[in-house]
Design brief:
single chain; alpha+beta; Ubiquitin-like (UB roll); 4-stranded mixed sheet; 2 helices
Length: about 100
């Protein structure tokens, strides 16, 4: 289903594409009231379910438009920046050492 059809059918939801290591790993349809922090928890949980190995000392960082979004911001705040789906890039970083 195309993004424009999704937007017409679900006007209170935001289509999102999540990229990890250069590949699309998931597409989400999130309510407009979802915060970046809630999305972060959802992405982390789904990545583990898909078999992506995350060690306890690795942290995930989510970027949109090359910037780190505020965790209290809503996903809908970034909806106007993208013509189709909101694009998020996930990167992992070793937090110790």
């Amino acid at each position: 289903m195309s993004t424009s059809a999704l937007r017409e059918r679900y006007p209170d939801y935001v289509p999102c594409e999540i990229y990890f290591e250069g590949a699309t790993i998931m597409k989400l349809l999130l309510p407009c009231s979802t915060t970046i922090c809630e999305m972060h928890m959802c992405v982390r949980k789904r990545m583990i379910a898909k078999g992506v190995q995350l060690r306890s000392e690795e942290a995930l960082f989510i970027f949109t438009g090359g910037k780190l979004p505020t965790s209290s911001a809503h996903v809908s705040d970034y909806d106007n920046s993208f013509p189709d789906a909101v694009v998020f890039e996930v990167q992992r970083e070793n937090t110790f050492g």
